[in-house]
Amino acid sequence: MAYGIHIPTRVRFGEGVAQDLPHVLREMSASRVIMVTDPGLKESGVAGRVEALVREACSDVGVYADVEPDPSVETVHQVASLCREGRADVLIALGGGSAMDVAKGARVVAELGGDLRRFAGNHAERIPGPFRTRLCAIPTTAGTGSEVTFFGVYSDWENKIKVTVTSSHLAADVALVDPLLTRSVPPNVTAASGIDVLAHALEAYVSRQATPFSDALAERAMELVGSSLVRAFEDGSDASARRDMAEASLYAGIAFNHAYLGLTHAIAAAVSGHAHVPHGVAIGICLPAVIRYNAHVCGDKYRRAAGIVAKKQGTGGSDAAEVVEKLARDIGLPSRLREVGVTKDMLAGIARQTLVSVQLRHNPRDASEEDILSLVESLW
After folding, report:
1. Domains of the chain by range and CATH?
2. Whole-angstrom Cα distance, residue 168 to residue 151?
3. Among 59, 227, 261, 275, which has the minimal tally of Cβ within 10 Å of its Cβ?
4. How many Å apart are CA 234 and CA 249, to the nearest integer?
5. What pLDDT digit, counting tens, does each position of 310-334 carry?
6. What is the pLDDT of residues 208-237, one digit of tens each?
7. Cis, peptide link before residue 288, omega less than 30° from 0
8. Which candidate, 219, 216, 241, places its Cα nearest to that of 230?
9. In whole angstroms, what is the distance from residue 142 CA to residue 244 CA?
10. How far is CA 65 from CA 79, 103, 143, 157, 223, in A?
11. Three-state DSSP state, 204
12. What is the spatial distance between Cα 8 and Cα 257, in angstroms, rounded to a whole number?
């Protein structure tokens, strides 16, 4: 088969690579920098330490530290306004997927104008590039892989949906993936972001767009998750586990850049839009049921995946759904939608919203609205 490989982001990986930030900024000829982060990293002092590194290379630094989980379109517009007003030439995204997605979206709006929504969905406007403003991503969680992906996901609370912007021009110019920055992540965030890594790998693995390249990365990501997620959850100071999960997130992100995602992420986005459920939590609930649904057409791949994850967990088993369910239990994730505030009257709306997701075109098995409703009802 013929396939392409495109990794526009320059990645530095390893303990301590965040200290390279002043050098990276000098290479970018940075003169006006805005750092995008969240309140938790500001309160913990991590944002302050990174800001000090920025100031070694650039004295004109602004900080936006109000990024919320599952960030809104409005937050993106606020940061875009700051970029325009401050004439920023470099954006630094420090945090999990939320901070990185906000920075990605803000760069689009700051340079192209208008509302972010016009670049989202099935009828999205094309995003031209490259951008004048450079973007450096510094992840502090092992989960989204947003430091290398072509996607940004945003909450449109007005319409109770999540919108996705997709373009290779969205990708960061540079990513500094430093596992040391993930050590302070609390167990519940480690669990939710970690199961998202596994979902990225699994959905890329069974995607209709999967290639030998994406499969190799997905398999390595699954291997690392199987050996290290529980350890990282149980002991956040486990340096080896933190490194493995940071690496897994990176590999899974590159894998789904090339193969895309599927039904799990489509449903989870609709769940989050209706009930404000954290993304990784929604993923953990939905993933086993979607595996069972898809297994009718890609059972062999799921069996291989189960073997990879279960072997690294030190357990047997060839049923991927059961392997994922056990892993989710071991890291304390809920298993039912009712446990996270989803009411029964939301299910029909969740099914309808899932049906319009662009992710469905890559899922290995077609799904009708009735199929999806039956699936989410089984999860309630």
Report:
1. 10-181 (3.40.50.1970), 187-379 (1.20.1090.10)
2. 8
3. 59
4. 18
5. 876 555 556 999 999 999 999 999 9
6. 999 999 999 999 999 999 999 999 999 999
7. no
8. 241
9. 9
10. 10, 12, 20, 21, 35
11. helix
12. 11
